[in-house]
Amino acid sequence: MEEEILEKANYCLKCKTKPCSKACPMHTNIPEFITEISKGEYEKAYKILRENNMFTHICSTVCPQEEQCEGSCVRGIKQSPTQIGKLEKFVNEWAEKNNIKYISEIKKQKNKRIAVIGSGPAGLQAAYDLRKEGFEVTIFEKEKKLGGILNYGIPDFRLEKEYVNNIIEELKQLGVKFETEKELGKNIHIKELLKKYDSIFLGIGAEMPSQYNLGEFDKIYDSDYFLKAYNSNNFIKDLGNVVVIGGGNVAMDSARAAVKMGATTSNVLYRRDEEHMPARKIELQEAVEDGVNPEFKTRVIKAEGTNRKIEKVKCIKTEVIDGKAIDMPNTEFDFKADSVVFAIGLKPNKEILEKEGLQYNDNGLISIDENGKTNIDNVYAGGDLAESKSTVCRALGSARKAAKSIIENLEKGEQHV
Predict the structure, then answer these.
(1) Phi, psi dihedrals of residue 295, rounded to the nearest 5°
(2) How many angstroms from the chain centroid is the CA of residue 414?
(3) Which of 40, 258, 259, 336 counts the highest number of beta carbons within 10 A?
């Protein structure tokens, strides 16, 4: 194993321009940590990773390296890119196996309080960066369980929850406070929080499912509800033949969760071809290995059945022209189905956020400037709330940028006092 890892590490050109690091939303010092692996200095490699990113183990597991760091690797221009994700995962697993701990240091305590709303990746990252600077930080979470999408959205077969819980425990030890069952727009409000806190970071993610009308039937679910049921061990019974509409990683997660919840069959119906499927290749491969059946160039039109019970979905075949799925005339067909899961995206809860006084942009996302600041003074946002198709690592990067702005803004205010 180590020989293979050393070979992968030595394959890296250790570029001085670091295009891989620039493409990483967290700007990880990739050539540096790989250089340490090449020397067999795994603990030093781990320290480089961990100093920059407390989520490094999670990122090595769930992030689409092929689109980010590996996608910008110079080696990848004419050959295969350096396998950065596998090297990062090896270092983290080595550190775990050898009980190597990283101790975060807090700067001198500052007399400033920050409210972080949401305990998903963006909220946790913002809280970490702010707490390390000495600010008093409280995270408000609407659910009983902390972790946001990391615990409720990403299934355990893709991400071991131990890694998420370790991060939450570390934040608690650093002095970050947590309050659960506190939901923005219901029992906490921006206006009231700003009376007690010097700044607010919003990391509540996108929670409103996208769907279209299939008819009035009972067993139609959105991916958010479906995955939360699986991750909470509150399995949905009698799923029968499941049809998942969508083609991203969430669709793959939902289809695999359906298998594990006892579905008779689990099928992903996607309107484009495999080449245009947004899901990572590895996610599709693992879904197929779990027994999921992908059907490409297939658009679901409506569901059919009796007494609100789905018996089939009516579909039409498509052709992909310039990346767009075009319906093919006279190709309608029926596909056996008992349950349907929509996995075509989530969007922010516009109604609640607008009531809180926040402005939206043309993409239906919270409007922020280049530093993560919203239209309300001292209120910042990051993650799925403020950018479309965000990955865990991109959510972390946007949270770090906003946290940096909060720090600079509050320190500037102190200087003017």
Answers:
(1) -120, 115
(2) 35
(3) 258
Q: What are phi and psi for residue 93, nearest 5 degrees? A: -70, -35
User: Which of 325-337 are b and which e, b meaning 16 or more Cβ less than 10 Å from the residue's Cβ?
Assistant: beeeeeeeeeeeb
Asked whether 42 and 91 are in contact (CB, 8 A), the reply is yes
Chain-wide mean pLDDT for the chain?
94
pLDDT, tens digit, 9 for 90 and up, residues 178-210: 999 999 999 999 999 999 999 999 999 888 888
Residue at 163: amino acid letter: Y
Q: Environment class of residue 188 by beta-carbon count within 10 Å: exposed (0-12), middle (13-18) or buried (19+)?
A: middle
Please tell me the distance from the alpha carbon of residue 178 to that of residue 161, in angstroms, as a whole number. Answer: 18
Residue 191: how many other CB atoms lie within 10 Å: 9
Cα–Cα dist 177/174, whole Å: 9
CB atoms within 10 A of CB 187: 12
Say whether pLDDT at 413 is over 70.
no
Dihedral (CA of 282, 265, 209, 179) sign: negative
The set of residues, in sequence order, having a beta carbon less than 8 Å from that of 323 and lying 6+ positions away, is 272, 276
d(CA 304, CA 217): 9
Question: 167: which residues sit within 8 A by CB, 6+ positions away?
Answer: 54, 55, 58, 124
User: Using the 8-state DSSP alphabet, how is residue 167 labeled?
Assistant: H
Convert the pLDDT of each residue in 203-229 to its tens digit: 998 888 889 999 999 999 999 999 999
3-state secondary structure 224-259: HHHHHHHHCCCCCCCCCEEEEECCCHHHHHHHHHHH
49 contact partners, CB below 8 Å, separation of at least 6:
28, 33, 56, 88, 91, 92
Amino acid of residue 14: K
pLDDT band, residue 345 (cuts 50/70/90): confident
Angle at the Cα of 41 from the Cα atoms of 64 and 12, rounded to 5 degrees: 45
What structural domains does the chain harbor?
2-97 (1.10.1060.10), 113-207+348-415 (3.50.50.60), 209-342 (3.50.50.60)
Q: What percent of the chain has pLDDT over 90?
A: 90
Whether pLDDT at 34 is above 50: yes
CB 342 within 8 A of CB 221: yes
What residues form DSSP beta bridges with 299?
316
Please give the backbone phi and psi of residue 110, each rounded to the nearest 5 degrees, phi first. Answer: -105, 150
